[in-house]
Amino acid sequence: MQVMSRKSRGFTLIEVMIVVVIIGLLAAMAYPSYTAYVERGLQREAQGQIVELASALERYRSKNFSYGGATVAALAPELNANVNYGVQLTIPAGNQTYRIVATPRGRMAGTDTLTWDSDGTASWE
């Protein structure tokens, strides 16, 4: 009597389903960490751009002896193109101080707002 051997060709449906479930669980655990990582990166990018704007404001003040007339569009045009943060520059009467506020928008909406004052004080609120 001859016994026929059955050759295994591929994976069974159960094996494939188990692999899919495992990959889904791993992705579900990794996705929140990934999005938090991306948000932190975008916050740091905004912070770096705000520091560059503050440096440009200091250069402007050294040439003009006040912050009066300074605008974000003139000093840091790349900030106007930032889709994740809207930047507002406020120069109070007297033109000797300023405040930069970066408000989150787009995919960053709902995260903290960055405030930077002329004395170098920065805060995420």
From TrEMBL:
The chain crosses the membrane at residues 12-34. SUPFAM superfamilies: Pili subunits. The lineage of its organism: Bacteria, Pseudomonadati, Pseudomonadota, Gammaproteobacteria, Pseudomonadales. One of its GO terms (cellular component) is type II protein secretion system complex. One of its GO terms (biological process) is type IV pilus assembly. InterPro entries: Bac_GSPG_pilin, N_methyl_site, PilE-like, Pilin-like. It comes from Halopseudomonas aestusnigri. Keywords: Membrane, Methylation, Transmembrane, Transmembrane helix. This is Type IV pilus assembly protein PilE. It comes from the Bacteria. The keyword Cytoplasm does not apply. The keyword Signal does not apply.
